[in-house]
UniProtKB/TrEMBL annotation:
Annotated organism of origin: Bradyrhizobium vignae
Enzyme class: isomerase
Protein name per UniProt: Muconolactone Delta-isomerase
Subunit record text: Homodecamer.
Catalytic activity from the UniProt record: (S)-muconolactone = (4,5-dihydro-5-oxofuran-2-yl)-acetate
Gene: catC
Pathway(s) where this gene product acts: Aromatic compound metabolism; beta-ketoadipate pathway; 5-oxo-4,5-dihydro-2-furylacetate from catechol: step 3/3
Amino acid sequence: MLFHVEMEVRIPHDLPTERADALKQAERVRAMELQRTGAWRHLWRVAGRYANVSIFDVSGAQELHDILSSLPLFPFMEIRVTPLCRHPSSIHDDDR
Ligand SMILES: O=C(O)C[C@H]1C=CC(=O)O1
């Protein structure tokens, strides 16, 4: 099942720089792992914002929740999730 996910990162200004950098690095490693497994199918930076637009390909809402809530930056992200289904005019076989 596909989900459109928007993540806006808001790291508090009083979080020590080393802690913030460690979280960003851990997030990067985890995001790359999830892309390799296919669960995190697309990852795009939103121009001009510390935010991304992503497409996740997972079994359902519970798996998506488990993934998102275990991301290192989860406590500092505002996340919006939109479930997707196939568009009848899509020419892409992997849209499902
Ligand atoms: O930078 C972000 O958008 C937040 C998060 C998502 C992937 C990643 O590496 O960090």
